[in-house]
Amino acid sequence: MKNIKLNDHVEIEIVGSGTNTYGKEGNEFKGALRGDTEEIDWAIDNGYRHFDSAQLYNNEEVVGDGLAKSSVPREEFFITTKLNTMEGYHGADWAHAEIEKSLEKLQTDYFDTFLIHFPWDDNDEIIEAWSILEDYYDRGVFKSIGVSNFEKEHLDLILEHGKVKPVVNQIKSNVGNWNDELIDYNKKNDIATIAWGPLGGLEGDAEKVLDEIGGKYGKTPAQVVLRYQIERDVIVIPKSHNKDRQAQSLDIFDFELTEEDRKRINAL
Ligand SMILES: NC(=O)c1ccc[n+]([C@@H]2O[C@H](COP(=O)([O-])OP(=O)(O)OC[C@H]3O[C@@H](n4cnc5c(N)ncnc54)[C@H](OP(=O)(O)O)[C@@H]3O)[C@@H](O)[C@H]2O)c1
User: Catalytic site residues (predicted)?
Assistant: First the structure.
């Protein structure tokens, strides 16, 4: 495993586990909770220690139960969750209450990173929300704070008005939508990028090219794409409802892409 050092010196494992459909009926985002923690149990068994959760996923308790009942101590896990701002911001009291609920559901007294999930169209409110995260950061409840789905202008807002710089910007980056410009902007500002949906777009011609590249190393298209991202220091958080595929997504540290491979992948 490789670690990335964030701008506040906290270290994060470069491959984490997505969780947005874990523990749900039919593996559906909107599915009801099944009442078990199977995918989290497999992930821990496979060696994942970094978990990406969010209030929006409505399954923080699945992640919390899985981690709590494992034999791995809390401090060996890296837990991220996110304030659900999909429908905007509903005031400081709301934010505090949601954060407290997350701590309870994830059965912890701190988060390794806590993110604002989406920007919305009220700059004063975004600055207020960020100052709430800063307060939890100052008190050590959040070891690091960051954002998700932020565009350049939203990052600029925080960089200009915040006291603490975001450590990460979690954004979509996958075949067909690498998002290179924003990744470069993150990097220029010493903000790490986490790629969500990292295995999207693995079909058709792209899959053929990746299969050809992977064939040289005995790796699958998914492993090639994840390797591509980590070679450029982009953190990935794949999820799978299959234990073997979860393991394959971690098995990407024993080969190296050539410059020619990287060019072909970037063109997909
Ligand atoms: N910040 C945001 O706004 C945001 C938005 C979306 C997602 N996320 C986060 O990002 C995480 C990952 O994104 P995602 O859930 O969209 O999906 P993803 O990780 O890109 O995976 C897509 C599909 O790829 C398959 N897969 C997984 N590992 C594989 C492997 N090694 N080989 C072949 N296929 C494989 C899985 O199907 P099988 O189950 O059949 O293996 C999965 O459904 C989420 O779980 C969530 O934590 C964040």
Answer: 57 (proton donor)
**163 CA to middle of ligand 1, Å?**
33
CATH code of the region 3-200+234-241: 3.20.20.100
Cα 255 to ligand 1 centre (Å)? 22
* Dist CA 180 CA 178 (whole Å): 5
Domain spans, the chain: 3-200+234-241
- How many angstroms separate the CA atoms of 95 and 72, rounded? 30
> In whole angstroms, what is the distance from residue 225 CA to residue 262 CA?
10
If one residue of 52, 56, 199 were mutated to test the ligand 1 pocket, choosing by the most ligand atoms within 8 A of its CB, it would be 199
* Protein residues whose CB sits closer than 6 Å to any atom of ligand 1: 18-20, 52, 148-149, 170, 196-200, 220, 222, 237-242, 245, 248-249
Query: Closest Cα to atom 41, ligand 1: which residue?
Result: 240
Helix (H, G, I), strand (E, B) or coil at 227: helix
Nearest of 10, 22, 9 to residue 51 by alpha carbon: 22
245: its two tokens: 């595929």
Q: Give the tokens for residue 82.
A: 């996110």
Whole-number Å distance between alpha carbons of 18 and 198: 10
